[in-house]
Specification:
By secondary structure, the chain is mainly β. Helices cover about 0% and strands about 35% of the residues.
Length: about 180
Amino acid sequence: DDGGDDGGSVSGGIPNWDCDGDGSFDNYTSYLNTATITATVSVDGENPSTEGDLVGAFVNGELRGLGSPLIAPFGTYAGTALFYTYIYSNVSSGETITFQFYDNETDTVYDIADTIEFVADMTLGNVPFPQVLNSSGSTDDYVACGGDDCDGIEDCEGTCNGTAIEDCAGVCGGDA
């Protein structure tokens, strides 16, 4: 983490939070509990969110949730990008959730200064009153899609964040 606040591009490519590009967290079946947050992102007092942006929720550097932008249809934040994000955990409370924001237009990842404590079934923010997540500066402390770090998440073919699974006969990618 460079801790800088220059807002410049880190030129690392899309972070490996969503390498398949479907806009959703792929490992949710590994967790027992959920919480939700409806949030907007503020970088230097502005909401830079556009299509292709992402908000990642983390516990000790492990991705625990992913949000893609949706435009608020009404209320004080009408026309603003909001990130509706499920956050996952195997404990009912006590884990500290940190956030990062990926700005697709500038290819920049921002650390978010705000943290929350995970509580199972918690709901923070809503469309009229989203939780505001404030940037603390850009960072290059992440792994891009195609990078070497898979956070231990490889499919049965050995593909980082891949989707191949074993069928009932134990054949990777099989149809039994």
